[in-house]
Specification:
single chain; 186 residues; alpha/beta; 2 domains; 5-stranded mixed beta sheet; 4-stranded mixed beta sheet; 11 strands
């Protein structure tokens, strides 16, 4: 009987895990080593979002350089954000967000949907505060304060699927256990 309950719970857990999108399992630093690009001397540079990674994860630029973040992952939404700068809205395939970094410093960034999808923009010698107030962005894309941001709707579906999977597994296990306890006709 205990074995049936355990099997039912494991089945429910497996069902719940199958609902987690594989893109959410992205690893840090481009799944291994960090990638780098030296874009000093350029007026504009592109950081590509592909395979749930930023390509390059570390980009060195001169002050005043425009950096375009482009999503090239079909079927996977990303965003890009740092401290006091970024685009926290869904960026779908082909969407671009551009920021201009005006002061020397290190500006870390991440996709809030995919743990470990991180990077940094190193401006000048990197010896500045890296203050997001020195980053210029289009006014319609000013960052939303974290306490007012709406959670992604697909996160709710994943949580609901996990709860449903566990409930199905538990119900199956208890139903099997109940059937085993019934007296059989002799």
């Amino acid at each position: 009987m205990r074995r049936l309950i355990a099997v039912g719970m494991m089945t429910g857990g497996l069902i719940a895990l199958l609902w987690i999108p594989t893109a959410a399992l992205a690893g840090g630093g481009c799944h291994g080593d960090a990638t780098q690009q030296d874009a000093t001397g350029q007026d504009a540079v592109t950081v590509v979002m592909q395979d749930a990674c930023f390509q390059a994860s570390i980009t060195t630029i001169d002050p005043g350089t425009d950096v375009a973040f482009v999503n090239e992952d079909q079927g996977i939404s990303h965003n890009v954000g740092g401290v006091l700068w970024g685009n926290y809205e869904d960026m779908n395939f082909g969407d671009t967000y551009t920021a201009t970094f005006d002061e020397a410093g290190v500006y870390p960034f991440a996709c809030s949907y995919h743990p470990g999808m991180t990077g940094a923009i190193v401006v000048g010698d990197g010896k500045g505060a890296g203050n997001g107030l020195a980053v210029s962005t289009p006014p319609e894309l000013d960052p939303v304060p974290a306490d007012t941001a709406e959670p992604r709707s697909d996160v709710r579906w994943v949580a609901a699927a996990a709860v449903a999977g566990l409930a199905v597994g538990a119900a199956s296990a208890f139903a099997a256990a109940r059937r085993l306890r019934r007296p059989t006709a002799a």
